[in-house]
Amino acid sequence: MHQRKTTPKVRDGRVQKKNRTQLSGDYYLGNLTEFVVDRQRPGEGYRHVLMKRDVEAFISILPDWNELSVGLHAIVLSPGESNLMGWHRPGVVGICAWERDLWIDCNDSFFKEHEDIITRLGVPSEQKGNIFLCKFSEASARAFQLLHILLHELGHHHDRMTTKSKIQSSRGESFAEMYARRYGDQIFGRYTEMFSLH
After folding, report:
1. How far apart are CA 183 and CA 161, in angstroms?
2. Tell me: the pLDDT tens digits for 38-61?
3. Which end of the chain is more exposed for a tag (fewer CB within 10 A), N or C?
4. What's the CA gap between 23 and 20, in Å, rounded?
5. CA distance to 107, 148, 161, 162, 192, per residue, from 165 (Å)
6. Contacting residues for 137 by C-beta, under 8 A, at least 6 apart
7. pLDDT tens, position by position, 148-187
């Protein structure tokens, strides 16, 4: 005998039918009744260092979450993609799965742009020409994804929601990067009280 699951599965951002009769909401369409954290398969060669509960705990320490979450339908822990750590679509932000080997190669420009964050998280690194090998642990990768990648993508969401049309982000990458850094600095102490960096 197969017991019915009470929580429907989410596949490709679409909630599957409950009891095979009624389609639930779709967070890309914005017709859900409540905010969702969705964890998808990480994909070959990748793994999630974040659990749904990590995201839920993290947003609980954001000082203006009630305001920031307006118009946000979901945070998606999405499959890993080469050269992509996160993304934003109207109403949805995504954090890509991490490479299965936690140590990652960064080009010179990425490393220099994020060196202060990498150093703050205690990530050892070594330079080989124009490439930096960043020796992340699971805890430091989690911290980087929450304190920087998620905040950066939420910056794009905030950008979109504070434009007149609320259709697209208009201030670009520099705004999202500044947003992530400002909030990362503001909540770092609370983060370290809730999560380990080691």
Report:
1. 17
2. 999 999 999 999 999 999 999 999
3. N
4. 8
5. 36, 27, 8, 8, 37
6. 102, 123, 198
7. 999 999 999 988 877 765 555 666 688 888 889 999 999 9
